[in-house]
Amino acid sequence: MAKEPEEVWSGLLVEHIRPALMGRLVQGFIHNLSGPLQILSMQLEFLSFLRQKKKKLLEGVLLKGMDPDTREKLYQMLEGEDERLQNVVEQVERINQLLSAFSLKTNPDRTFIELNDFIREEIIFWEANLFFKHEVKKELSLFPSGVTVKTIYPLLRGAVDLVLCWIIDYGFDEEKVITFETRPDPSLVIAYKGTPIPQQTSVREVVRRGDPWPLYPVLAREIFQEIGNLEFKGNEAIFRFH
User: Model-level pTM?
Assistant: First the structure.
């Protein structure tokens, strides 16, 4: 028995309202982590500086009088400590990248955005979705010299996120692959294999038909129209910038 439109939309609201409410806490969570992480980064930088000074001191004074075997063992110990410290530095930088990807950049003005960097950051952000991280193969076809656009970041990110939501929830067949491509015209293309993106043109049309599944791409198109043209061609979403 088919569900009534009110039941369909009520179910959709219940499904999404809890993640939306939880999402309000993300920015505060990131803010609370940023302070301690900044202090940790500064301390690691200072420790790295002290390590290099200590190493030069040992090389210049203490190691000269040692026998070769003892000198080699001490060198290996120092190199091992350097590697471990560098590993910690890299992990802290990784956390910084994650926090940057999750931060809500809300500047309403047009700013210059390098699309290759934007795509890499989006992938880091979306890997919080464990299905996307472990089950979806990500392929990059990025224009080698980069593609820079002057656009509004929240609108770009909002539209891209909605398209990715739809692909992950509805679009895949057995082969779960997403290709991200940047072109110099300038444009950004997200392609996949599976169910074609629906062609409904407005939220009103989606509501009239009573089926909410095309809602994400419709909203993505409406969001993006202020900064460009979003076209759906089968299994491709093509973001063209003004």
Answer: 0.69
DSSP structure class, residue 227: T
What CA–CA distance (Å, rounded) separates 133 from 113? 24
Q: Which of 242, 149, 140 is nearest to 190 (CA)?
A: 140
φ and ψ at 141, to 5 degrees?
A: -130, 80
Cα–Cα distance, 90 to 49 (Å, whole number): 16
Angle at 119 between CA 107 and CA 215, to 5 degrees: 75
The vertex-90 CA angle with 49 and 82, nearest 5°, equals 45
Cβ atoms of 135 and 176 closer than 8 Å: yes
Q: Splitting the chain (242 residues) into consecutive groups of 10 residues, what average pLDDT does each group show?
A: 55 56 59 74 80 75 70 79 82 75 71 95 88 95 96 92 92 93 97 89 72 82 94 95 94
- The 3-class secondary structure across 132-147, one letter per residue, is HHHHCEEEEECCCCCC
With CA atoms as reference, report the closest residue to 168 among 206, 117, 133, 219: 133
What is the C-alpha to C-alpha distance for residues 62 and 140, in angstroms, rounded to an integer? Answer: 51
Cα–Cα distance for residue pair 217/223, rounded to 1 Å: 10
Q: Which of 170, 161, 90 is nearest to 119 (CA)?
A: 161
